[in-house]
Design a protein that fits this description.
The chain is an alpha/beta fold. It is built from eight helices and seven strands; from the N terminus they run βαβαβαβαβαβαααβ. The longest helix is centred in the middle third of the chain and has 22 residues. The protein binds NADP nicotinamide-adenine-dinucleotide phosphate (NAP).
Length: 232
C-alpha cells in the first residue's frame, strides 16, 4: 500500500505520539496544526520522514488549498480538537459554532478534499471522545460533536467504501497534555472511578488507533478506550 500517513492535529498529544510511532516504523508522515511554522518545527524534531503543514479546520473553506501538496494517503487520522466549556443555560454561540465547524464540518471537508487520493485499501480514523455517551457539566458542545463523530463514521464508511472508516473515543487520557498537569486530587478521583485502576495512556490510545488503521475487516466501528468507565 502506498501513500503517506496524514495526521490532522498531529503536533500535540495523541496525534503527535501516533506520528512518532508511524515514523519510527518507516512510514512517511504528514502532521498538521494551525500554524505551519510550528507544525514544521514539530515535524523536524521527530526521527524519520515527517513533514509539518498548517491547516485550520475552523476555516473549512481553506482546507483544500492547505492540503494541495499532499499526494496519495494511506492512513488518514483526524485528531484535531480545541477545548470548549459550554452549558445550554449560558450558551456561547460563537464557541459552539467554532467547535462544531472544526470537528464536524472540518473533518468532513478534509475527507472530501482527499477522497480522490485515498486508495481502495486506505483507512480513516476519526477521534471523538467518551463525552458522547458520558456528559459532564460544560460538555454540551463536546458531547454534541463527539456524538456527531459517531454518526459521521457510519455515513463515511458507507460513502467511501471500500475505504474503511472507524472512530475512536478515548476516556480521560492521563498522560496527555490536557490532563497531565491537573492536580493529583482531580486525577485520583478519576482513577477511583475507572475499573482498570488507572487512566488510559496515550500509548494505549495509539495502540487502539493502529489496530483500527491496520485491521482489514473492522469498519464503521465506534471504539471506546476508557479502561471500562462506561461500565460504572
Ligand atoms: N486527551 C484526552 O484525554 C482526550 C479525551 C477524549 C477525547 N480526546 C480526543 O482525542 C483527540 C486528541 O486529543 P489530545 O488531547 O491528544 O489533543 P491536543 O494535545 O489538545 O492536540 C490537539 C491538536 O489539534 C490541533 N488543533 C487545534 N485546533 C485546531 C484547528 N482549529 N484546526 C486544526 N488543528 C487544530 C493542535 O494543533 P496546534 O496546537 O499546533 O494548532 C493539536 O495538534 C482529540 O480529538 C480529542 O477530542 C482526547
Amino acid at each position: 500500500m502506498s501513500g503517506v500517513v496524514l495526521i490532522v492535529g498531529g503536533t500535540s498529544g495523541i496525534g503527535l505520539r501516533l506520528a512518532e510511532r508511524c515514523a519510527a516504523a518507516g512510514e512517511r508522515v504528514v502532521i498538521t496544526g494551525r500554524d505551519g511554522v510550528r507544525a514544521a518545527a514539530v515535524a523536524a524534531s521527530l526521527s524519520g520522514e515527517v513533514v509539518g503543514l498548517g491547516l485550520d479546520l475552523s476555516v473549512p473553506e481553506r482546507v483544500g488549498e492547505c492540503l494541495a501538496g499532499v499526494g496519495g494517503v494511506r492512513w488518514l487520522v483526524l485528531a484535531a480538537v480545541e477545548r470548549d466549556a459550554n452549558v445550554v443555560r449560558e450558551y456561547d454561540v460563537a464557541a459552539a459554532v467554532r467547535l462544531v465547524t472544526l470537528k464536524l464540518v472540518g473533518y468532513s471537508e478534509v475527507v472530501h478534499q482527499l477522497v480522490g487520493r485515498l486508495a481502495d485499501d486506505a483507512s480513516v480514523v476519526l477521534f471523538g471522545g467518551l463525552a458522547w455517551r458520558r456528559p459532564y457539566p460544560g460538555s454540551t458542545t463536546i458531547t454534541t460533536i463527539n456524538g456527531g463523530v459517531s454518526g459521521l463514521v457510519r455515513t463515511l464508511a458507507v460513502e467511501l467504501a471500500p475505504v474503511r472508516v472507524n472512530a475512536l473515543h478515548p476516556g480521560v487520557v492521563g498522560d496527555s497534555p490536557e490532563w497531565a498537569g491537573k492536580p493529583a486530587g482531580v486525577l485520583d478521583a478519576l482513577v477511583a472511578r475507572t475499573p482498570l485502576g488507572r487512566l488510559a495512556t496515550m500509548d494505549d490510545v495509539v495502540g487502539a488507533a493502529l489496530f483500527l488503521l491496520e485491521n482489514r475487516a473492522v469498519n464503521g466501528v465506534n471504539l471506546e478506550v476508557d479502561g471500562g468507565w462506561l461500565l460504572v
